[in-house]
Design a protein that fits this description.
7-stranded mixed sheet; 1 helix; single chain; Immunoglobulin-like; 300 residues; 2 domains; mainly beta
């Protein structure tokens, strides 16, 4: 919403009258508008970098007209890479989205200011848990464009405030909130895998949803540590955003021997839940779909 003081209202009223008179004389020669348009064809795509000053809801769009921000306001948005969508998600004011933690996102003010006013931006991020509100935010940022990371499950609101000022005249802008829900955590580890390059269960994959910290260590039967993995080194499985690959079964560049190995894993969920897992896992390179095999002995 925008709040105008008396001086600003008078100026705007006079400007409206002058504008109407100018339009009545010659519409074809009128150059007073502050709005611009951009024409695109059905095959044109507009990327995020070219849309910093455009109110568009997606990173790649196909449409005929793109309007700039309000003259004295903004069209703020946030963007982040979504594993679920396997693409960059762009959210504008008034929209809601569910995501996993840790969620790293950028906040873009997209401020419009054609009359040369000075302005100050204020981003507020708050948790809706325990009746939290924008008046009691988790964090406040005063940059027009900034970034933040959500690591705890629950609902969050994000809002932009802009204060314009010029020669004692002040205009205040307040956006609609952007709402994000971070899902609760989940961590499940399988009993084994078969790294034999048959494209079936070739890697050790765990189910990890909204896990913000991970430390996994694999040991052979003699207690020798042969592999480690963290949230930073693990790879997401394409098309399965909740799956993480912890190990390809190799030690010193070679696939280890069939047998039983020990996994020690610590995980921390976005909801504060700690996972402490110690279990035996079986490596069976001779196992193929539709066959039976016995797992015995120990690995190298």
């Amino acid at each position: 919403m925008i709040k105008l003081n008396i001086k600003t209202r008078i100026i705007l009223a006079i400007s409206a009258v002058l504008l109407a008179v100018a339009c009545s004389h010659d519409d074809d020669n009128f150059h007073g508008t502050n709005y611009s348009t951009r024409q695109t064809t059905d095959t044109d795509s507009v990327t995020t970098d070219s849309l910093v000053n455009d109110s568009v809801a997606t990173d790649t769009v196909k449409q005929t007209e793109i309007l700039p921000p309000d003259e004295m306001g903004a069209n703020p948005y946030i963007k982040f890479y979504s594993l679920e969508e396997e693409d960059t998600v762009r959210m504008t004011a008034g929209e809601s989205q569910t995501a996993q933690a840790p969620l790293i996102f950028e906040l873009i003010g997209n401020v419009g200011n054609p009359d040369g006013y000075h302005y100050i931006c204020e981003w507020r991020i708050w948790s809706v848990k325990d009746n939290g509100s924008e008046d009691n935010p988790l964090v406040t940022r005063f940059e027009q464009n900034t970034s933040y990371t959500l690591t705890k499950s629950g609902g969050y609101g994000i809002k932009l405030y802009v204060t314009f000022s010029l020669d004692g005249d002040t205009i205040e802008y307040e956006s609609e909130p952007i709402n994000i829900v971070i899902s609760e955590s989940k961590l499940v580890c399988p009993d084994g895998f078969s790294p034999n390059n048959d494209s079936i269960n070739d890697t050790y994959r765990i189910t990890a949803q909204s896990i913000v910290k991970l430390d996994a260590k694999f040991f052979n039967r003699w207690g020798e540590k042969i592999h480690t993995a963290t949230l930073e080194t693990a790879k997401h499985v394409e098309g399965e955003p909740n799956k993480l690959v912890l190990w390809d079964g190799k030690h010193n560049g070679k696939v280890v021997s069939d047998g039983v190995y020990i996994l020690n894993l610590y995980g921390l969920g976005s909801d504060g839940l700690e996972y402490k897992i110690r279990k035996s896992i079986s490596i069976m390179t001779k196992f193929h779909e539709g066959t039976e095999t016995n797992s015995s002995g120990g690995g190298s």
